[in-house]
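Q: How do we represent a protein-ligand complex in a form that can be generated token by token?
A: Start from the inputs.
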Amino acid sequence: MRQLEANGYKVTHDAEAPNGEIAVINTCGFIGDAKEESINMILEFCQAKEEGKLKKLYVMGCLSERYLKELGEEIPQVDKFYGKFNWDELLADLGKAYHPELNLERKLTTPSHYAYLKISEGCDRHCSYCAIPIITGHHVSRPMEEIVEEVRMLVARGVKEFQVIAQELTYYGLDLYHKQMLPELVERISDVPGVEWIRLHYAYPANFPEDLFRVMRERENVCKYMDIALQHISDRMLQMMHRHVDKQQTYELLARFRSEVPGIHLRTTLMVGHPGETEEDFAELLDFVREAKFDRMGAFAYSEEEGTYSATHYKDEIPAEVKQARLDKLMALQQKISAELTARKIGQAFKVVIDRIEGDYYVGRTEFDSPEVDPEVLVPVSDGELEIGSFYWMKVTDTDDFDLYAVRADRGGRYEQ
Ligand code: SF4
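Then emit the structure tokens for the protein with iron/sulfur cluster bound:
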């Protein structure tokens, strides 16, 4: 987007209103649902093109990379499908120049006070069900200096919160430095003046880099938040899924997080309906969710992905309705747990960042809430004026099943470290 801007285009990020000279759709091909969403988006934009709202339509991203030929044949209304990140090819096709001096610059699509920060691409784990290594290839870490430089540039533009992301965070550095370097990287980002919050998304449970516990505990600007995808708990399923971790190790890891990083909020992702999952395995998973009490949890039903070990070695034999029923049951259980944990926050004060204003409320988040997926903090506009992107002390007055309601706890001014 930044490169297009540098070439004179006015660039917007607004998937809901296809309108303009060209549209570029970025696709995801991770699981069935994501593929469907991507295809629907492409078709919606084809329609807009047919109605004359768009002149050219281009598609890139993971789905496009994986099914380049098939998509080109199936959806000829798209002017061109590109590989995952082949935007230099797109620029060339548009007759525009690539500006190498802007290679670390970005046009943010998030509110200006936070940004996603990708530290690596690809994955070298081989979970049996997962197509990501097939689509994205081997794990490639970005050099630490480059990441820290990008953080500095973003801070200079007003970014205060960083959602550090990767397909698999804990592998960071192994390819480039022959050592797990996530703890050191987080410390270096944490040292950049102006970084208010660092949040970590998508860790793998086996061979967890131990020093990260210390970094998370000691560094005030590292959110006490960890998004760690566990997928399952039954030893049999973990083995079939090639997760290289067992039930006991998983419980031990969760216990260590909670003892070494007081106040940590854990988010996980689980999968139901993988081939071979019996009612007993699923019951074990329910027990696990009941006991582990994750602060947040996402779950999805297995979908067979071409070329994966699961697709070639196991039969996708669990009926869709059984998968869905398991998913619903798991989510209903977690909803109760999340609501109970959230309700315990009534009366407590938290540092809150204000993301936006919506109707009668300012909408913000605590350090335990990632944008888009986690609870939000609603502060009545009548409580006084707040600045978007600023941090305040807020006292929680009430909660519902998902969100928190709060009022200013610091009448004297904004949050001060
Ligand atoms: S660690 Fe995550 S991205 Fe990598 S193969 Fe496993 S599920 Fe896929």
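Residues 320-343 form the longest helix (24 residues). The radius of gyration is 22 Å.
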